[in-house]
Records
---
Amino acid sequence: MITRERAAASRGRTRPRRARTSTTGATPDGVSPGVLRRTWRQSRARVVQQREYGAGFRWLELELPAGFVAPIAGQFVQLLLEFPSPVLLPRPMSVASMRRVRGKLRVGFLYAAVGAGTRALAGLPPGAGVSVTGPLGRGYPLHETGTPVLIAGGRGVAPLLMAAESLARSRRRCEFVFGARTAGLLVGLAEARAQLARARGRLHLATDDGSRGFHGDVVALLTKLAPKLEPPLVIHACGPHRMLAAVARWAIANGARAHLAMESVMACGTGVCRGCPLPRSSEARARVLAEGGHPTESGPAAALKGNPEWAMCCTDGPVFEARDLDWERVE
Amino acid sequence: MSHVTTRRAPVAPEKVDLSVRIGSLVLRNPILTASGTFGYGDEYAHVVDLSTIGGVVTKTVTVKPRAGNAPQRVAETVGGMLNSIGLENVGLERFRDEKLPRLRALAATVIASIGGETPEELETLLRALGREAGVGAFEVNFSCPNVAAGGARYWADPERLERTLAQLKPLTDKPLIAKLSPDVTDIRDTARACERGGADALTAVNTFVAMAIDLDGMRSRLGKATGGLSGPAIKPLALARCWEAAGVVRIPVLGSGGISSGRDALEFIAAGAAAVQVGTATFVEPEASTRVLAEMRTWLAANGIARVGDLVGAFRAEPAQGERATAPARNGERA
């Protein structure tokens, strides 16, 4: 464990050098193409806020040092506890909010304290340090033309509220579908309502048991809403994989584009360890093979790097278009 | 070990000679990145100055591309991580055409890791890559625990190792490094066999075969029943295997297994390793290799050790009962 302490001390020492060399490739705060660039770095962040968020979830806000590239909605960071940590590896955390306070970047995360690492995280007071590597992965391609429909399941609401704000900054309003099994699991509903009011998004609620809003799942609600919206629809979704699979199937059947934020166990989070595979669809597989599996650095083909069988959640995703994954094999 | 730590005046850190010779290859220092933990170098090039570390060992390449194993491929256990990647890689053709040119552009000493299910596959790889510019040495992965054929179990046979290395040796002028599995009855047997076969160096060790069970689902926490364990949890185990291997060969040994600090690296060197590899620590901290190097340099300087080579094999076991506790001589000084 001394090692971890030393690691933290060393990171502290090298921080100024990083800050000076990290001025390139800043992502604009607004709508961005979601293209992967290697702008991530490991930095020491400071806890500025921790609080209960309802439904067993917690809200964490971190202040990042200068030079940390601003994440876009759908991207994630690798969060690592400092010494003494009960766990070895960092944990991937989806970025749920981003703002600047007195020139410093503040990012928010929604999490549940369910494991040894997240329980320790929940115990960190304001001022405590954590290590953050990011921003990582490909975020939502919010620039895509069409009517934006944001679909959130439970805690999946977080990155989508950030997406709604990004869209609002480029003067686009969204339809926001928020679903859960039951009313109590509509995580942070009051905050979502307030944020969407600011972003001029229209909120549509659904619960499986009918305890709030539409009685049924988000796909049934989407089916009902879709005829009233101007086509084409561009869906951005986050939630349990089973929900995302249902949204993906709906999008494919109805000719809509859908971008789905996936989750996976990860080790490195940077594409190196090859530890977070997701099954590619036969269509994506054929495209990878047709392109000779050659890497492309940007654009929609970026998700088609290399391996025809498996996409990596961390660098090919975590946001995938519906047609790029085999939803029968997604766990 | 106090004989090397207390009697000398400190030296300036920048004066410490860290260079290491591996066969015909001279490394600027003993810190390398372990295969499979650093991609092809360029993934980390924006955060790690590759010209400062001793070298980069690339992800194992096989003749044909490999898609790798089904999920789950990684699982954390106490102090370590299990992996079952299954040697996912782009294959020989794309490695040569796409990865090698990029590797040449990096300011790094590159050691290419090659893997095969048969001796013939390894021959094919070395015929294609053995004379390519931009590769300083080859590490032959004789120890992947996660493939159905040609993995650690297949290559645990000393005679097969010796015969294969003898076949491979003429195919390249560059040093051949044999990466060994710890999962053998006695690593001294496989170490000696590799030396007899003509290996220029050994890497000790690859991951340990290990498993974790999800009791709720009564299934493996990996897609396969077992995987390879790495990280701090294996450091004491790996250190012992490294010490045993280094004690019976003249060729240099590259220590590997759970190294995440300068002191960890120096323990392997004291046990007989000429150089070390940093692996899983990079997943925790992308700049781990450069930090390990800086910590190593600081310790050597503070303890007045002007050449890292002077520490190689400095540890000597007390005379003890039992056959396995015999003290190895300093690496490189005797057979």
---
Amino acid sequence: MTTLWDTTGSAVVKELAAQRRTGGAVLSGVALTLVVVADESRVAEAEEAATHAAEAHPCRILLVVRRQIDAPAPRLDAEVLIGGRLGPGEAVVLRMYGRLGLHAESVVLPLLAADAPVVAWWHAAPPDQLSTDALAIVADRRITDSSIPDDSLAALKTRAVDYAPGDTDLAWTRCTPWRSALASTLDSVSGRRSEPVEVRSGRIEGDPGNPTAALLAGWLTSRCGCPIAVEESGRKPGASGVDSIFLQLDQDEEVQLHADRKGSATISQPYRPDATVALPERALGDLLSEELRRLDTDEPYRDPLEAATGVTGLADRSPVREYVWLDPARENGNGARPRKRAAAKSTDS
Amino acid sequence: MIPNPLRDPRDRRLPRVPPPCALVVFGITGDLARKKLLPAVYDLANRGLLPTNFALLGFARREWEDEDFAEVAREAAREHARTPWREEVWEQLSSDITFVPGSFDDDAAFDQLAATLGKLEGSHGIGGNAAFYLSIPPAMFPTVLKQMQRTGMAENTPERWRRVVVEKPFGEDLPSSRELNELVDSVFSADDVFRIDHYLGKETVQNLLAVRFANTLFEPIWNGHHVDSVQITMAEDVGIGGRAQFYEKTGAARDVLQNHLLQLLALTAMEEPVEFSAEEIRTEKLKVLRAISIPEDMETFAVRGQYEQGWLAGQRVNGYRQEEGVDPESKTETFAAVRLGVETRRWAGVPFYLRTGKRLPRRVTEIALVFKRAPHLPFADTDTEELGNNQLVIRVQPDEGVTLKFGSKVPGSVMEVRDVSMDFLYGEQFTESSPEAYERLLLDVLLGDATLFPRNAEVEASWTVIDPLEEFWAGTTPHMYRAGEWGPRAADEMLAAEGRRWRRP
């Protein structure tokens, strides 16, 4: 590990190359570059999760921490690690001070692995409009986490308004075990009946303010074609915000799923005795690993997002985002709006 | 599959989960069950790939209660599982575990087994679906299969499926394999018989198909115009362990060459399947197996060997004849190497050298395509002295990956070309640790996907290749090699006869 204080982007590139050469048998191939944008207060969490994900998906990790955007002089501190604290591969922790934070891509671009996909993950409150962060433009896949902001439903709506193909949210990733349990339960009902099933109505009991519960309800609504909402439950649900799910099927049958607080859930279904499935709360690193497994657009995320937020027309969004210059120092809350870079060039520092 | 409103083909986050079913294992106390099957079941459960209504039923001659069995299974799974141990996953799985004691010729025990399966339908909702895993010596097959027929356990109905999983060896020659196939097919329908060749469950073997058929780079050179020869090696550093009784009458050719190596050859040499489906892939493999020709000069091109006492990995090891339970005059081979041809337009004239052996220096399995040398080199002879043939090597295990070997200039003021290698290491580029072969294959059985399982016609075609070799070898004494060597001298001479040499894997 080498730490470079008050350095430049080229020095970091050189140091990375030098370490690769002297490091002996290091990983030679990477499948992707993972750019992590984290707040200083969440760096440890982000490092742990990225390390875990890198074990499953060898990647180059670039951790970007923007600090003191109003510092008078821009400054870059970098830590270059190969096969160290941040997993078996290459990792660079970049701390950017002052207005350099607004031009993070100038440091990140030369550090990207050649011709490999780029995934950007905000382990922080992401910008309302992702295109105001140049790192989002560079990335092929963008991962946000709507459970971080206090008003998660508003955050989810912001994501829907800003949606472009290639975006996903960890709130959606947290649905997967629930979705998988529901889908296989319906498989077994239809297998027993030897004919397709239809869902007539249903509801979710849990925390209506939870983005995962909202997306799960959105998913059921969009797949089943009947409105399914999240209702307040009597018990406090886990991180997914879901306590129970009730689905009414077309032959007067009911399917129920109840979380049992011990990392599993009970399934009540017609024709069969109750069964238990494991539904553990997954660590951040596991969620991130699931995201990295596939690097193409996650279309099945789009419909639930529409259904959960009421924002429509997501299918027509262009996958290409255009960079929008936004200077936080000039944003005073009195109607300062993001402007296109061309218009703002003269005032750009 | 019946459509399900919650299933979306684009939604690849949701795993393929089999329908409710039971897995019945005969011979659950055996080595394979403990080291491979039970851990694989746990790993599947841990990855959320087992149906919610699942039951594991063990059958063996032990006076065990369900709890005793659950305890044994727990130890086995815990010791050999690939994925991290999670007690809560096991607890859930253990409530699905049932044990039925009895011997294979005991009618009452099988009646009880059938009754238990019926009961599981009520208590576990398995929907009558069941896969029977015969983890038992082939000699027991007739007894067990007849019992299953008698109790009606093997019957498929529109409401339920019943499948059977058979392990190698699939017979010991063509007639016995036919007999076995007929027996299994008389009880189960051909589509419900899954013959496990665990090599086909390995990620790299499946990757061979991806490398060949998903790229434009390799297909144009994948033929006799460019390929000089193909070498397929499966080497083991271990001896025969405690399997003397089995090995004495089997030998390396029947144990490994007949199944693993010929399957690898078939995958390497086959034409592109019309689509990536079980039926089409098996059809193409079968064509290759039927096109295999055996050498005329068997003396030179079919070599078998047996290890003598020697040193391996810093330890002194016994010779084969000194192993416990082996006849001191034994003529069983522990090494086999053979030169085969594939008589198709693509491969005519290209030798396929296959070898396998025990007590070789390291455990390695690989497929190497050795390319022809450039017809003309514009360099001086001395410049290219260290340049060999270009090679493409598929490393099946360990270090799963692909190596490409080609010539490159040595830095310096003179022109000098030397071989270098470019490595693709699976674990490095990808993503998820590869599932164990048994994990993948068990899941495929429960899903009813037969892509990775050889069909009985393939097994029979393989025996047609092996039988003449065995006939030639019968009564001869194998060539001796020291444990820790890459096989007997005769194997090297076999390649030297045609001006080639074995790659050191």
